[in-house]
Amino acid sequence: MFFYKTKDKILISRSEYNELNRISESEAKENKEIIYVLNRIIPLKSRRYFSITDPSLIFLKEEGIRLLQKSKKINYDLPRWLNERIKEKRVSSLNTEYPNWQDMLTYKFPSRWKINIVGLGDVGGALLTGLRLLGGSCIESLGIYDKNIKAIKRWELEANQIFYPFTAQKFPEVYKLREENIFDCDMFIFCATVGVPSLGEEQEDVRMKQFEGNSKIISGYARKARKKSFKGIFAIISDPLDLLCKAVFLTSNKDTSREFDFKGLAADQIRGYGLGVMHARAVYYSKQNPGTAKYNREGRAFGPHGHGLIIANSLKKYDERLSEMLTDQTVKANLEIRKTGFKPYVAPALSSGCLPIIATISGKWHYSATFMGGVFMGAKNRLLKSGTEIERLDLPVILVEKIKESYKELGNIL
Question: What is 113-272's CATH number?
Answer without folding.
Answer: 3.40.50.720
